[in-house]
Design a protein that fits this description.
alpha+beta, eight-stranded mixed beta sheet, 35% helix
Amino acid sequence: MFGVVNHPAADEKASIIDECRPQLTLYENIYRDIHQNPDLSTQEARTADIVVKHLSGLAFDVQQNLGGHGVVGVLQNGPGKTVLLRADMDALPISEDTNFPYASTKKAQNAEGKEVPVMHACGHDMHTAVLMATAQLLRSARSRWKGTLICLFQPNEETACGAQAMVDDGLYKKIPVPDIVLGQHIMTIKAGSIALRSGPILAGVDSFDIRIFGKGGHGARPDICIDPIVTAGYILTRLQTIVSREVKPGELGVVSCGSIHGGSAANIIPDHVDMKITARAYSTQVQERLLKSIERVIKAECTASGAPQEPSIKSIMHAPPTVNAEAPYHMLHGSFQRYFHDDLCEGEAKGASEDFSILATACNRPYLFWNFGCVDPEQWAEAERNGTTAQIPGPHTARFAPAVQPTMRAAVDSFSLAALTFLGV
């Protein structure tokens, strides 16, 4: 698909970025503002409004309120390839524990109506500010490339629902279908560095709410009860044999129970037990095997326990594996290698998950996803000397504290370079 594109020489792409990169102080301030005022999933109205005003000011054709608070800006610049760059906007229900003067103290009501703290603990504030800066860079450079640029700001990534919601809301009936979809994510490696790999980079995920039914009664008379806590115990134990006995050695499979609740007193056998279970794999084949086995185990243990009714198994999250396509990977790796030199490293496949790939698979297009570092270089060097890099607080923790620079500059450059690699110039 991309073999016939007339790419500029490496030094030309570098000069485009160097000459057209905007003053990043503006975007550093935008980042700090979004960090201090985070929006929970499905509540990204404030952040989306900032994005809409910015893209409109750059003369992008803007679509908003896609799949919730999703925003898309389209810049058509003559014949050529169509490239989509994606960032996510939502924050997490975490109480921030950093020393930043712009730390979040915000609280909001979650989907269940419960008041929770809110923090950008996964870098989506940086993703948003970076794509805004990239949009300005590429618009300023529009005399030096041809094609169509799409900047997509996705809501509700943390529940893995936002990408599909945008597609279901008619995304590709309202904007051009891209030739390739590109995305990047913050990572706890040295700021200024980029991590790229081919093949699997993120696992697929499925999560479930499970309810196991029993027959409640007095704890002194278990003989006339059906104890769902005992049933849940057998389920929990049996689930751990799925990966060890049913997944081929060398293939990733994870089955975890992160929550189990039942009963309210020591002498009362409850009527039901609730469990939350998640499964992850790098391939759809393994993921499908895990899901079938989870359902089989749960139902079989309930039958063995004499449960009065079938268990309730409700899907609450789904995202497919993220697997970088080989051919575009080699094109982008070449561009990154010539530009970042020793700051480009081989990425590692992670057990975390994303719904990013849905934006590409929904229109049968290839995609690439990579990481950029956010740890202050001096802090990283000291941690490497002490063998403590794994102890640096990472995403989804209260102490996640990215260095604004050189994180932002490297991320803007990598997004811009990736776009220029696949656009006609």
